[in-house]
Amino acid sequence: MAAAAEPTAPSAGRAGPNHGLRIFLLWLPAALAADLVIWFIWGPHLPPGAMSNSAASQQFDLQVLAVMAAPVMLGVLIYAAYAMITWRARGDEEEDGPPIEGNTKVQLSWITISTVLVLFLAAFGTYELVVPAGAGAGEGPSPIWKPDGKPLVVQVIAQQWLFTYRYPQYGGMETAQLELPVGQPVQFNVTSLDVIHSFWAYQLGVKADANPQVNNVAYTTPGHTGQVTVRCAELCGLWHGAMFDYGQVVSVAAFQAWANHTEVAMTKITKTLPPYALTYTPNEIKGLANFFYQAGLPGAGGGYYGNQYYPNEP
Amino acid sequence: MATKIQPEQAQHPGGGGPGAARPARPWWLRPAIHTAILGAVLGYFIGHWLGNFLASGYQQVKEGDENNFAIVFGYLAATVGFLVGLGVFNDLLRQMAGRPMAAHEAEPPGLARYFRYTLDHKVVGIQYLVGMIIYFCTAGLFAMAIRTELLSPTYHVFSPSAYIEIVGEHGTMMMMLMSSVVLGPFGNYLVPIMIGSKRVAFPRIEALSFWLTPCAFLILLSSLLFGGFPFGWTGYAPLSIQATQGADSYAVAFGLMGISIILAGFNLICTIICYRAPGMRWSRLPMFVWSMFTTGFLMVLAAPVLVAGMYMMLTDRTAQTAFFVPDLGGSSYLYEDLFWFFGHPEVYILALPGFGIVSEIIPVFCRKPLFGYRVAAAGMFGVCILSFFVWQHHLFVSGINADMRPLFMLTTELISIPTGFIYLVALGTFWKARIRFTVPMLFALGMYFNFLIGGISGVMLSDVPADTTEHGSFFVMAHFHYTIMGGLIFAFMAGIYYWLPKMTGLKLNERLGKIQFWTMFIFFNSTFLPLFALGEMDMPRRVFEYARNLETLNDWVSISSFLLGGSILLFVINFVWSTVLARVREEGNPWRSRGLEWQIPSPPPPENFARIPVVLTGPYRYGFKDAGPVADLNPPVGVIGGAYARAGATGAEA
Q: N or C: fewer beta carbons within 10 Å in chain A?
């Protein structure tokens, strides 16, 4: 799907109206108008917003892609609509069309234009992937694209069917809610205790699969304070649909206060947890799941399987 | 190459020869559907017993007292029993015992032949057609159940477990059974006729490929008896290893269907290479045959990986291997890689036949030659080859191979170049055409419209930063419904309206057809266009709960989807009304097509051609004043040899 319509109009010689020029004149203002609307009016409101640098890069990519897609789509649609109106058979016309089997010039220009568009998109996408430190996508255990500065490390532990968050820089405390300071790079270490989940912090533009026994790292830098929706984006079983919670991006001072307070309040509980590690083995799941159940922490499963249920028991 | 002169009798499918035994048994002893069902039931019990005997108590999953071994063996033995009862192995056993094979003469007309293991590619084509419509409608009902649940942001109609079963059944049934939706009916029926052959290369393999599909269908449905499977159509491990017994039917059914599409593709590749009539050069092959050829390669090369993946999943679930269990040294990435190495070619298995049908139809109703024949064929080959190099774009956020992302982004975007060729060909064919808006043409145009949206949204998904938001959301869901439902199924409908008069000699009601097109086109778009927005607004796939502010949009989608279901119902009504009740004859060539298949009577006689035709021109020479007939259907004796020699000399492989 590439290349605009105008090269498909063979140089309309001979008698009759210049169809190619007509289609071009229909297409040009439509494409211009669409692109201006997309860039200036629609673009700033495109998801996922600009709450973090990775979200902003995704929004910018969507904007660029939409600006490129609109003329291509309009080209094909305007050409096809023009053809259907102008070159429809009238009445019971039995006549055949002109025997045109191809046109090397048209074919070559189509191939050239689509190749140029595609190569530009690939180069643009690569630039946009590398510069904002992986663009918020999970980069696996040894990330190659990192942000500048020392990030705040947050471990995201997914299990059926809730996320919990550990802060190794604050004594390894584990919370049920995501809390982040504004303006500081964040490193998410995403892992799972049972099956594959996907940590999707929508407003932050972060998505990283949570694989068991794998530490999947994703980076972002929140730019504004506000609420963050966290959803599971990979089918993980029965209560996948209910696996969501809300996090906060707060000011640095508020985060410090919250973190220090929570670290102290959780000291006792933190001691009962398995020590902080990049991945966890199923033996520790039992203790962890039990702990959450007894602490009355909200789980999306709501104790569906009861206390006795330990997923993936070998 | 088919340059060796063969005696014409050799084109009778099934062989047999002079000494062939003719079974003279009463009808109830002759192999057909009833003996097959008997075989399946017996087989299931034997297999179930064997599984329990071999591995009693080896693994009993908590919530059921069924043994995975017993279920898997039961399914496999039931399939074998079904095929034995159908008579699939009769000729094979006869040959092994040195006895002459049964004679396979033309099946007597009547309904009974459609319930047998038959060697006539036209009967297999009709079997496939009816089968595929049944599978499609069943899976479509599941889709409407999903939309019923999504009318409200919390669960209200189905329990979460019922909902997840329905999601899994819908996705798996559509993706696995619909992979043969065009190649099965139209490929098997029309390709031999289009290339001027009396038969396919391997009629037994072809018939076997069909009879595996009802087995896969029923086994997949039977998973509901064991509580379904909770992992959608992708079956990601370790969720699929953790799941209860319903997952066994998923793996067995998907594996069987994998075998079926390998066989079907293999047969068609060999038929196209070896059974072209004299004069049917590669440069004269209809576009539909090219699409079947490339689809066949995808099936033969991609599906073995699926079968291997399903086999590993089954041994993980039964024999306690640990291919996909990370705690025991396996890797969940291994399954993702295996699955998508099949899964991405699979989506082109679903797209290419659609391209073939629309490219075949537009020249007929534009009354113009296909614009850029070579470009169209090159586009199909380009898609076919590139589709093996893009699979990791499904895993952009999985944490696998982050440094390979620019490469997979590039290959994914490159595949839009050959796909764009299909549009170049269409737009070029429209230029100064005489477009006739018949029902098949309307569906073909609808396919181009829908696939444009599907394809462009695919380019958006190929960009890693944009994909980070879109992955796993309703955006992806809308994208592939636009390419598969909007592309393949619209093309399938175009094919039915175009070729059913050929296959049955009966006319489909045109007014009902037009109503069906417009309702289907409008409600399809009104169902799936809002899903792009829903995906961008934070709605993941396969959920039964969503944010309350998305309720209006979801309700709109649900109501549209019910109306879309209504338009499919209109199709079923039209199909049954026109072929069973009204039965208006449509003989000859109603579309004035130059395709070879339209040069013979409708429905085609049992032998297709009285004599092997000699093809004289390509199929798209519309508008040429001096265009002669497409083929000499009754070449004088002796000409065939000469034509072979000439075709060989001038480069039949060009």
A: C
pLDDT for position A312: 40
| B279 vs B444: CA distance, rounded Å | 29
In terms of CA atoms, which chain A residue is nearest residue B320? A314
| A58 to B465: CB separation less than 8 angstroms, yes or no | yes
Q: How far apart are the first and last CA of chain B?
A: 12
CB atoms within 10 A of CB B394: 23
Residue A15: burial class (beta carbons within 10 Å; 0-12, 13-18, 19+): exposed
Question: For B234-286, where are the alpha helices, taking DSSP H only?
Answer: 239-242, 246-274
Sign of CA dihedral B458, B460, B463, B466: negative
CB atoms < 10 A from the CB of B101, how many?
A: 18
Among A104, A63, A74, A102, CA closest to A3: A74
Split at pLDDT 50, 70, 90, the class of B300 is: very high
* Interchain pair A80, B372: CB under 8 A: no
Task: Check residues B483 and A9 and name the one with the higher pLDDT.
Answer: B483
What is chain B's mean pLDDT, rounded? 87
Among B336, B313, B322, smallest CA distance to B397 is for: B336
Q: Which residues numbered 210-239 in A keep a CB inside 8 Å of some CB on B? A: 211-214, 216-217, 229, 231-239
Mean pLDDT of B351-370: 93
Interchain contact, B401 vs A106, CB within 8 Å: no
Strands A226-232 and A244-250: antiparallel
Compute the half-sphere exposure of residue A21: CA atoms within 13 Å on the CB side of its CA: 6
Half-sphere exposure (CA, 13 Å, Cβ side) for B225?
9
Cβ of A9 within 8 Å of Cβ of B160? The answer is no
Chain B contact probe: residue of A19, A209, A230, A284 with most B CBs at under 10 A: A209
pLDDT band at A305 (very low <50, low <70, confident <90, very high): very low
Q: Rounded distance, CA A79 to CA A85, Å?
A: 10
Q: pLDDT at residue B329 above 60?
A: yes
- Which chain A residues have a beta carbon less than 8 Å from that of B400? 140
Q: Write out the H or E segment, with its range, that includes residue A192.
A: strand A186-192
| pLDDT (average), residues A49-65 | 91
- Asked if residues B341 and B391 have their Cβ atoms less than 8 Å apart, the reply is yes
AA letter at B81: G
Q: Which among B327, B375, B427 has CB closest to A314?
A: B327
Q: How much is the average pLDDT of A145-162?
A: 90
Residue B215 has pLDDT above 90, yes or no: yes
Query: Residue B558: is its pLDDT beyond 60?
Result: yes
User: How many CB pairs below 8 Å do chains A and B form together?
Assistant: 329
Q: Which residues 246-305 of B have a C-beta within 8 angstroms of A? A: none
Domains of chain B, with CATH numbers?
Answer: 104-582 (1.20.210.10), 596-649 (no CATH)
How many angstroms separate the CA of residue B327 from the nearest CA in chain A?
7
Band (B7; pLDDT cuts 50, 70, 90): very low
H-state helical runs in B537-628 = 551-576
Sign (positive or negative) of CA dihedral A13, A17, A23, A28: positive
Interhelix angle B439-462/B510-536, rounded to 10 degrees, is: 10
**Across the interface, which of A73, A106, A311 has its CB nearest the CB of B456?**
A73
What ipTM does the predicted assembly reach? 0.87
pLDDT at B612 over 60: yes
Least Cα separation, residue A97 to chain B (angstroms): 5
pLDDT of A49 over the 60 cut: yes
Over range B371-400, report the average pLDDT.
92
pLDDT value, residue B166: 94
Say yes or no for a CB contact (<8 Å) between A97 and B373: no
Report, as an integer, the average pLDDT of B128-147: 94
How far apart, in whole angstroms, are the C-alpha atoms of residue A63 and residue A40? 10
